[in-house]
Amino acid sequence: MDVSHGSPRLQPAAWLLCGVLLAGAGCNRSTPEPPAPPPGKPRIALIMKSLANEFFLTMENGAKDHQRQNADRYELIANGIKDEQDISKQIDLVEQMVAQKVHAIVIAPADSKALVPACKKARNAGIIVVNIDNQFDRQVLASSRVTFPFVGPDNRKGARKVGDYLAYHLKPKDKVIIIEGVPNAFNAIQRKLGFEDAMNAAGMTVVSSQSGYWETDKANQVVAALITEHPDLKAVLCSNDSMALGAVAALQAAGKLGQVLVVGYDNIGAVRALIREGKVLATADQYAGRLAVYGIEYALDMLNTRSAPADRETPVDLIVKQRLAGTP
Question: What is the pTM of this model?
Answer without folding.
Answer: 0.83
